[in-house]
Write a structure and sequence with these properties.
Elements (H helix, E strand, L loop, with lengths): L23 H4 L18 E6 L8 H22 L2 H19 L4 E6 L3 E4 L2 E4 L3 E7 L6 E6 L7 E4 L5 H9 L11 H8 L3
Antiparallel strand pairs: 1-2, 2-3, 3-4, 5-6, 6-7
Helix pairs in contact: 2-3
Amino acid sequence: MQPEQPTTPVSEPQTTPTDQPVPAAQADTPQMTVTEATNLPESQPIQWQAPEYVQEPRSPWWFIGFWVVALLLMLLAILVIRSWSFAILIPAMAAALMIYSHRPPRILNYVLSGKGLYINEKLHPLQEFRSFGVLKEESVPSLMLIPVKRFRPALTVHFPAKTGEAIVDLLGSRIPMQELSLDVFDKIIRKLHI
C-alpha cells in the first residue's frame, strides 16, 4: 500500500527572469566576497574626496618671469631658428598654459576597494599597477601608483591625512610598497607651480 499524498496543493515559487529561486542548501550559508586576482577576502571600501592637484599661490613676480621667458623664446625663434610660425606659436602656448594653470582643481571622489581604485566612478584595477609609494615632498599627502606598462604615466592620488593609514594598509595588502622620490622634471614642474 502506498503512503497517502497530502491533499493541500503545494504552491510553486513565482520566478521572474531577474529573481531566480535559491536552492535550500545555499540559502543558509553565508556568502563571502573574494577578489579574483588575489583570492583575498574583500575588505571594506575606503571613500574620500580630494582635489585633483594642489594649486599653489603665485606671486606677481611669477607672472612677470613667465612672460619674460615667453618673450625670450620668441626672440630665440625669430633670430636663431628663423621660424616665424614657431615664434607665433609660443605666445599661444603660453596663453593656453596660463588659462589652464588658473583653472581651479576639481574635487574628485575616490573609492578604494579590493577590485581597484575608482576615480569619479572610473575603475583603475590594482592589477594595472606594479607598486605604489607615498610622496612626502608635497603639502597635501599623496601617493603615486606605478603602472605595469612601461610608458604609461604614474597615477598621483591626493588623500586626507586621517584616511592615509587605512589607504596604505589596503594597498599594501594587494601590491608592494616602495620608497619614491620625484624625478628632476617633476620637481621643476612643482617649483614652477604649474
